[in-house]
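pinging the channel bc i need a second pair of eyes. not urgent but kinda urgent?? the chain im working w is below, pasted from the shared doc
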Amino acid sequence: MKRNSVAFCLALVLLTPALALFWASGKNTLAASGCSPTLSKNDTAAVKAVIESYRTSWLADDAEGVLKTFTDDAVLLPHHGVAPVVGRQALKDFWWPAGTSRVKLNKLDITVDEVGGDCQLAYVRGHDAISWTVEEGGTQKTYVNSGTYLNILRKMPEGTWRISHHMWDDPANQLQ
């Protein structure tokens, strides 16, 4: 519990200035541009659909599908203090490194506990639970984990939403 509290506080400290800057810089232009200061029902549904596409792409072993849910300049803020990963190619190298054993996802459950934002930027937070199998030393091993996540999504010029920042926290992987 203490670890989750520390992770939440760290996330709050890191993301609050960025969100405050965004809201402050957009306040004067939102009304003038016709941009709503809250997410519309359609935008909320579209943001949730991105999270579902992310989930189902992982389960389908579709790396390109996963990567398409992110902006070109996306930032991962991985768990356990791992250094940030910046850019779609870096995400690919992080999640699918060359020369490693193939990982098979058995389960990926993602909740959407909160969605908010405006017509240009959205945030989503929730919980995830995952199970995967990998070959290690000639033996199939299955791991499980669960934790929390926070995503920031940006509306693209053509009107679609993509994840620009993805942060998660969880305990160490547990052998099942």
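so Residues 23-29 have pLDDT under 50 and may be disordered. and The two ends are 22 Å apart (CA to CA). — does that match what u expected or am i reading it wrong
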